[in-house]
Amino acid sequence: MPSLKSVKKKTYQVTAEVLKEALITSWELLKITIPVVIVTKVLEELGMITLLSDYLEPVMGVIGLPGSMGLVWATAMFTNLYGAVVVFANLAGDLNLSVAQVTVVGSAMLIAHSLPLELAISKKAGAPFIPIALLRLFGAFIYGFLLHTLCSSLQLWQEAATVFFQAEQQPATLLLWAADQLKNFGLIIFVIFCIIIIMKILRVTGVLGFLEKMLEPVLPLFGMSKKAAPVTVVGMVMGISYGGALIIRETNSGTMGKREVFFSLALMGLSHSLIEDTLLMVALGGHWGGLLFGRVLFSLVVIYLLALFTAGRKRQATVF
Predict the structure, then answer these.
(1) Which of 47, 95, 106, 236 is geometrically suited to a Cys-Cys bond with 281, CB 3.0 to 4.6 A?
(2) Its pTM surpasses 0.90
(3) How far, CA to CA in Å, does 311 sit from each of 46, 168, 171, 307?
């Protein structure tokens, strides 16, 4: 039986190892996050988000939404979901939106939000910038259109939406905004530390091994091997920022190939932060059926077709 002294020594070693790993991973992420957050704030102050919303107004009509929802989606794309929620809360009161409409705009925001930051993370992790950007933008529009068409045809979720969530106002000064960002950076480090601990526990207890065996027959359909299972699941559940940080580490270690890095990040791009962000959109009055299950199904179908298409092109190139 190990002595108390040896247990303490082992605990200290493991804690130091996890802390070092978390700090290295966090630093890789923060090197991307800090410049992008500053540039995004500058663009916001220059009115670029409002300008983009003007171009999005006609698009909103195609997916069954009032033109003013373009400002909501533009805010989500350039900043984050919480910034978009503030805009939504200020506009939605006079629009009498249905549950279906909130589900559509919520789904578009869930697929395409925080793009400057999350696309930078994806690029750093090894996925090409433009394909992932186009996938998320067109994916958001196509899913929104399909969802709008389905809800209109079946008269689904046509009752008035009830907003349960009241967002806090955005910081009024640059100093308060900077303080909020510092809190966010601290939260990123803490969450990554927790994720690494959880991943180690899941590995030691055999849960990750079981998950990999369960997913092994399925992942090739989506262009990935079992090596991509842990980080992809973390990214889908926790979000691009945290899953992306782990994928950056995995990419640097060479355990994942370029193709599966791309498909892992593509799947994350369409469906990530499935718990927190989905609950946020439900609190705005959207329906979980479209926000969660429909979106995940759509994402899997898109990635499957993409993997099938690229595999066919690869075989054709080999033949010729």
Answers:
(1) 106
(2) no
(3) 44, 47, 48, 6
